UniProtKB/TrEMBL annotation, chain A:
Keywords recorded for this protein, A-Z: Oxidoreductase, Thiamine pyrophosphate
Signal peptide bounds: none
Record-listed E.C. numbers: 1.2.4.-
Cofactor(s) the protein needs: thiamine diphosphate
Protein's name in the database: Alpha-ketoacid dehydrogenase subunit beta
Enzyme class, spelled out: oxidoreductase
InterPro entries linked: THDP-binding, Transketo_C/PFOR_II, Transketolase-like_Pyr-bd, Transketolase_C
A GO molecular-function descriptor: oxidoreductase activity
Species this chain originates from: Anaeroselena agilis
One Pfam family here: Transket_pyr
Domain named Transketolase-like pyrimidine-binding: residues: 4-179
Gene3D superfamilies: 3.40.50.920, 3.40.50.970
Automatic annotation (TrEMBL), chain B:
Lineage, uppermost ranks: Bacteria, Bacillati, Bacillota, Negativicutes, Acetonemataceae
Protein's name according to its UniProt entry: Thiamine pyrophosphate-dependent dehydrogenase E1 component subunit alpha
PANTHER family linked to this entry: PYRUVATE DEHYDROGENASE E1 COMPONENT SUBUNIT ALPHA, PYRUVATE DEHYDROGENASE E1 COMPONENT, ALPHA SUBUNIT BACTERIAL AND ORGANELLAR
Cofactor: thiamine diphosphate
Domain annotation Dehydrogenase E1 component: ranges: 14-310
Keyword annotations of the record: Oxidoreductase, Thiamine pyrophosphate
Organism of origin: Anaeroselena agilis
Gene3D superfamilies: 3.40.50.970
InterPro entries assigned to the protein according to its UniProt record, in alphabetical order: DH_E1, PDH_E1_Alpha_Subunit, THDP-binding
Amino acid sequence: MREISFSEATLEAMAEEMERDERVFVMGEDIARQGGIFGQFKGLPQKFGTDRVRDTPISETAIVGAGVGAALAGMRPVVDMHFADFITVCMDEVVNQMAKIRYMFGGQCTVPVVLRAPDGIIRSAAAQHSQTLESWFLHVPGLKVVIPSNPADAKGLLKSAIRSDDPVLYFEHKALFPTKGPVPEGEHLVPIGKANIVRPGSDVTIVSYSMMLHRTVEAAAQLAERGIEAEIIDLRTISPIDFETINASLAKTHRLLIVHEAVKTGGVGAEIAARVAEENLDLLDAPIVRLGAPYVPIPFSPNLEKFVKITADDVTLAASKLCE
Amino acid sequence: MKHDAEFLRHLYRRMTSIRLFEEKIGELFLGGELPGFVHLYIGEEAIAVGVCANLTDQDYITSTHRGHGHCIAKGAQVRPMMAEIFGKATGYCKGKGGSMHIADFSVGMLGANGVVGGGYNLAVGAALAAQMRKTGQVAVCFFGDGASNRGTFHEGINMAAAWKLPVIFVNENNQWASTTPYRTTTAIEDIADRAKAYGIPGVVCDGNDVFSVIETAKAAVERARAGDGPTLIEAKTYRIKGHFVGDPEMYRTKAEVQKHLDENDPLKNFANKVIAAKLLKQADLDAIRDEVAREIEQAVGEARQAPYPDESELFADLYVEGVK
C-alpha cells in the first residue's frame, strides 16, 4: 500500500468530500493563502476557490458561530481552529449552540459542522499552544469527538465526520502531521464510535489514542520481550467511547491500563476507569491504572516539558507492574 | 401612507397577536401554570413586525431570550408556541426548548437564544450560506442593547462586513440590560454609530412606530439582497415589562413606565395613524383583536390539555445517528 503523511491524508479527505458534495466548505485562519500551519489545506483553494476555502478574520467566536449558522441553513462547514487551545475562545458556540441546538429545538434541524482542532504537545509550544482538551467535550451531550492516530484513520475519520449530520470535533495531533503511513487508495471511511484493536494480546489491555497510541505500541514490543502480551486498543473516537470493544478485551486480559497525553485528572481515562469499575469490576484481576500528564500547564523549558510527556518506558513500567 | 388596507390589517394582526400572547403568558406565569421563566416583548412589537414585513419564509432570523415576538412576526403559529412554553409534547420543540429556545425552521425562524449575544454569528453563518448559494435570501439578527456589548457583536459584524454578507443587524434598544440602564454601561448615545467602525451603514429608527421600522428595514434588506452587505439598524424603544415576569423592578419607577406607555405604545401609535388617515376603522381593529384573542384562548386551552413529552423522548433528537 502507498504511504502518505497524516497531513496529506487529511488533504485527500477534504478534497474528496468537497468534490463529492458542493455544500462542504472550509474556513479558518491562514488556511487559504498559507495552506494551514501544518500544510493540511495546501492546494485546496487552487482546486476549489477561495469562496469554499476561506481565510477568516482572527475571530474564533465568529468563525465557529458562522459555521453553526451555515449548517442550520443547509451547508456542511468544516472549521479550522488553528490550535485546539483556541476552542476556549469560542466555548459558547461549541457548548451552548452547536451541541444543543438540535436537541433543544426538538430535532427540527441538523448541525453538520466539523471542527478541526490541532492539539497535543509539540516542541516547547508552551501552555497555550500544547494542550489536549478532548475530555472537555466528552462531558457535553450532543457532540461527537474523534481523534485519529495514523494517516489512514485521519483520512477515514475526517471523511466520516464531514458526512455526519451531527457536530463532530476532530482532534489531530500537531506532531503527527508529518508522519507517514499506509493509506488505501480511493474511498476510505472509518466509522465514528468504533475503536480499533491495533495489537492483539492476552495479558493486559492498553487503551490509548492519538500520539500516545504510538508510545503504547513501542511499549508492547518491550513488554513482549518480558513475556507480557499487551492488547492495544486505539480508541479513535472519544465520544461515544466504544465500551463494547474495551469490555470484550478485558474479558480476555482482566487488566486495564489507559494512556493519554492529556492531564490525568478528569481525563478520558477517568471516564473509562469509572465506567469499567461501575459496570464490569468482576472482569478485573487488578486495579485500573491510568497514565496521563501531571496536573500542570505545559511548561516552556524543554527540560521541564519532558516531565509532562509519557514515554514508552513509562507505559512499559506501568504495564509490567500491573501484570506482576 | 402608501400601504393598502390588507397589509395594514396584517401588521395590526401580528402586533396584536404578540401583545395578547405576551399578556396571556404573563398571566399564566403569575398563576403558576408555566415552568421556567419568561421574558416578555410587550412594547417592542413594532420592531419585529416591521422588520419581518420585508422578509419571506425563505429568509432567516435569529432571536434572543425575549423571542416570542420575533417568532410571531416571522410567521410562527401561536398554538405550538404556547404548547412549548407549557413544556408539552405538542410544542414546537416537543417541550425540550421552552420559552427561550423556540424555533420554527419552516418559516426561517432559526431559534431564540438563551445566551445574550448568541445569535449574531448564527445569522452571519446563515447569510454566508445564502451568499455562497446565491439564493438571494437574507438573514436578520435581532439583539438588545445589552447584547451590543458582547464580543460576538464585534466579531460577527466585522466578518459580515468584510465578506459583504446579506445580513441585517437589528438592535432593539429598549434601554435596559436586565436591571441595568443603557446609559450606565455604554458611553455612546446611539449604538448605530458603531457601524462606522465596520464600514457599513448604521441607521436609527423609531422602534415604536412600525412604519418607521418598515422603511428602514426595507432599505437594509434591499441593500443586502443586492449584494452590498450588512446594515446596522438601531430601533429605539422601551421595555414596558420587567426583565422577566415576576421581576420586582426596583430599578425604575412606575411613573417612568407609564409615561412611555402613554406616549409610545406602538399599538396605539398604529391605531391613531391608520384611523386618522382613514385607512382602517376602529371596528376593523377591534375585529382583529377579538379574532386574535380567541386564537390565543384556544391555544391556551389546547396547551393545557396536551400531554407532556414521554420519557422515551428524553434521548430523541440528541444525535441524528443514534448513540446512547
